[in-house]
Amino acid sequence: MGTNWRSKSFHDRCYKNLKDAGLPDRIAWITAASKSRPWMDTDRVGIYGYSAGGQSAMSAVLWHGDFYKAAVADSGCYDNRMDQLYWTEQWMGWPVNQSYEDSSAVVHAANLRDALMLVVGELDTEVDPASTMQVVNALNAAGKDYELLFFPGGRHGVGLSNRYTLRRQHDFFVKHLMGVEPPNRNRS
Fold this sequence. Notes:
By secondary structure, the chain is of the alpha/beta class. Helix content is 39%, strand content 13%.
């Protein structure tokens, strides 16, 4: 969440609170920046992230859907109760407690209000693809619509360099933020 250049109060705010992801600060920054940049449209803000950023991107549309209208979440861990301990414990502590559930996108999947694309590679060894499948199951149970790009043989961060994924992500944002239907690529 932070670096050694951040204050203790910053770290205290983030500790056991992965769903925060600095999103309230980002909303404030974007809103403030838009005041002097009229070309910024704060009614059409999207977010992309992979790995911990994928978790943050999904958090944006779960807990800040009034601001973020579309998210692409690539290779994220959506419930830290199943993530690698060495990473999770530095942000969430030990033992597992209510804060893990409070930050779980799986538990809160029914909060989805806006457009979401999930991207996952079958052979991701950094974040178990089962994390994405758990959130897919929760979204299905909640009757939510979303897009899922699954890549057989894909590894962690498959959405960063795969040409097909990059195009699909681009088309997703064009559709959901610009309101323009992308061309039918099957006919081009």
